[in-house]
Amino acid sequence: MLKDSQPVTAGSFVNPTSTTQLNQTSDSTDRISTASLFGVFFIAMALIMLELILTRIFSVTIYYHFAFMAVSLALLGTAVSGVWVYIMPKWFSKARYSVQAPIAAILFAVTTCAALILYISIPFLPTADWGDLLKTALIYMALSIPFFFGGLCVSLPLSHYPKQASRIYFFDLLGASIGCLLTIVVLTFLGGPTAVLFVAALGAIGALVMSLAVPRRNLRLLSTAVSVIIVALVVLNLATNVIKISYAKGEYEGTKYYEHWNTFSRIVVVDPPAGTQPVWGLSPAYNGTFPPFYLMNIDAQAGTPIIKWDGNPKSLDFLKWDVSTVVHSLKTNANQLIIGAGGGKDIMAGLLFNQKKITGVEINPDIINAVKNQYGDYTGNFYKDPRVNIVVEEGRTYLTQTSEKYDIIQASLIDSWAATSAGAFALTENSLYTDEAFKIYWNRLNDGGMLSMSRFYSSDRPDETLRLLTLGLESWREQGVTDPRQNIAVMYSGGIATVLFKKGPGFTPDEVSILQKRALQYGFSLLYAPGATPDAQELYQAGPIPQLMAQPDYNTFVKNYPLDISPPTDNRPFFFHTLRFGDSIKAMLGMQLPPEAQNVHSKAPLSVLGALLIIVTIMAALFIFGPLLAMRRKKTAGANQNQNKERRSIRDNIPYILYFLLIGLGFLMVELPLIQRFSLFLGQPVYALAVTLFSILLFSSLGSFSTDRVMFLDARRRLIIAGVGLSILLPVYIVLLPVILEALTGLPMLVKAVISVIILAPMAFLMGMPFPLGVKLMSQNRAWMVPWVWGINGACSVVASVVSVVIAIYYGFSMALALGTACYFCLLLLALFSRVIKQATTETEAQA
């Protein structure tokens, strides 16, 4: 148990009194109870879990780019709670705190259950249309109500006990860090809806803990009753699955034969819709039949077939008519690696073509479990074939850790159109389609080996394949290939283009001839191969590919092309975002786009992102700054002279407004890029949550706690130390972190996790100090401002969570991190040169 700090005086923002009167206040009124602190711990744990779990649920029920809004709306809900405390000081008096805090926690628990049931009961599919976006905003505002009540449980103690902000903030961040770890367990074993009920139970338990400090038996009984009821609801739903997701992407899901959740996906096995085929790039010349199959949906969007197989390779002949298998015509008796094994179609194709060894790498353990165990007999137990080896790992991570080389590396339609719990902010970042990833593929291929990648392609949506080509051209050139066009071939069928990248000497005439024969025999279109002359139909289908491949200097084509098809990098890993900046602004504003940009995948996400940016900015102004500034000008009837004196002019308070504004912007703009960097380093998305986010929050909580014993006279000095440390450390991270992580990426996972914690700890520790130190500086003469700046901090965090994504998409994560660094540097300048902040310690010294 934490030992209470020495009693300090706290100027209540409700009824500020003179310093003399404050010093006469009893010590007991200025101590926050241990029960209240642990209540903050439980509520903070519940809040971050609700945010992360809702991100997962939104990704399933609507679309990944809407899931990102969960982060922003969660931050906004908690920010508004601070505003509410500020504008209703008589209602939220210190005398009522011990009762209001547990009641707010109870309301958090109840509204969490109600919001869940309401949301999953209504079929809802938002679009980028402004009318639908307004409906979306209203629905999300309703879903933010639990965050409002949860935020009250934190803003109230900060408002009434500002001199103990270090301790309160410590319990807040500590609870959030534990919540990150608990989310992994809860989502895995309970699933999305039941996990939300579990979060509500945590809130009710938090209410019960806080009620222990209140001499009111009825409040304890109410908290106990709510806790018991919600825990019973969790157990009941585990047994019956009554509260479940029935509508996904606006449609009723029907019978689900298998369902499982984890922190970055939800998979269900269903019957395929009528007319669906088990292959995506099917030749139009195929007139045969298909075996029965199920469809495994990931987040109700990305699908992979689970094909029934009797073990006879002849039963798989239909796969020869799938354009993604064309690489097997050139490489036989090969050592093959498949990135994204999924339901096993590509593995079955490898068995059909009698490849000698097949390694399937799949990032999602639930997919492997379903195919191997639940549907093992159905699929002919192909995972048990001695030629097949299955590895649960992220593709790039596995390739950096293995020393084995391959004749074929295959990745067919591998997408990340799902929001991970830790990385929803990044929308569609995909580390498999970057320049750094292609260098890894090159290094793991044998001489003469081939990288086979399949992407969607059509005359009105060529951007994905074009970007894949420029990525390969650039990466192969960087590996010393003089004319990488000689090492590339493109085959097309059924809306899918398969691109082959050969290591070593270019395609030989014999290999090109084999491709031409395969195209002729199976009805494919050879859109490009060195020395091949496409016919008229193929030229029509090829669209801009011949123009790109005809130019030795492909950079000129890339520069002049209407869409952004430049090679993505780990710093800007947004492969699917191909709109140029000007068109992106138009998409964000809902304006008409050029013909080439009408059907690109990034159009809808950017429209949502732009609308979200506008919405959160307006909401921040209306719900945070507007009421607060109006309150400052209001001449409150009956306000005593001391109160009017302490509520100084806005000009005098601008440094503190800027101070907490910078913290809100800086923390998120540092945290989010670092999560992306370490997610790539650690590989599995679950580790981003378990290591990166947990470490940042945990060590930030320790940084906050380290300021608990800091006296007022030392607060500014400690703040300057933290500012100097961050201003030095963060630029070092920007420059050296990518190099260090790339050099160490092949190490065992446990070692990488330890390294990640060591790297993140000092930065996170320092980032946890400015907020409580700022509150401490204000507590002597500006305690009434605490809920105001809490709201400002939260509102700016909302804006930062959106702005950081926009910056990362167009300028890279390093730029977002640099802007976060600039925020902390400006914070340092305020501490050094602000007259008002200097006076905070001077006034305290004089009064002492």
What descriptors fit this protein?
globular, disordered C terminus, disordered N terminus, 848 residues, eight-stranded mixed sheet, alpha/beta, four-stranded antiparallel sheet, Growth Hormone, Chain: A, 2 domains, Rossmann fold
Question: Could you describe the 3D structure shown?
Answer:
The protein has about 850 residues and is of the alpha/beta class. It folds into two domains: about 25-245 and about 605-630 and about 655-845, Growth Hormone, Chain: A (Up-down Bundle), CATH 1.20.1250.20; about 295-560, Rossmann fold (3-Layer(aba) Sandwich), CATH 3.40.50.150. About 55% of the residues lie in helices and about 10% in strands. The protein has an eight-stranded mixed sheet, with helices on both faces. Helix 4 (about 70-85) runs parallel beside helix 21 (about 605-635), helix 5 (about 95-120) runs antiparallel to helix 7 (about 145-160) and helix 28 runs antiparallel to helix 29 (about 815-835). It starts with 18 loop residues before the first helix and ends with a helix.
Beta-strand percentage range: 5-15%
C-alpha termini separation:
31 Å
Reading off the top of the CATH hierarchy, the class of the largest domain is best stated as Mainly Alpha
Structural class: alpha/beta
Corresponding CATH architecture of the largest domain: Up-down Bundle
Q: Unreliable segments (pLDDT under 50, ≥5 consecutive)?
A: 1-28, 416-428, 635-647, 844-848
What would you call the shape? globular
- CATH topology-level name of the largest domain: Growth Hormone, Chain: A
The CATH superfamily of the largest domain is MFS general substrate transporter like domains
Strand adjacency order, main sheet: 9-8-7-10-11-13-12-14
Into how many domains do the coordinates divide? 2
Q: How much helicity do the residues have?
A: 55-70%
- The count of DSSP E runs of length 2 or more, i.e. the number of strands, is 14
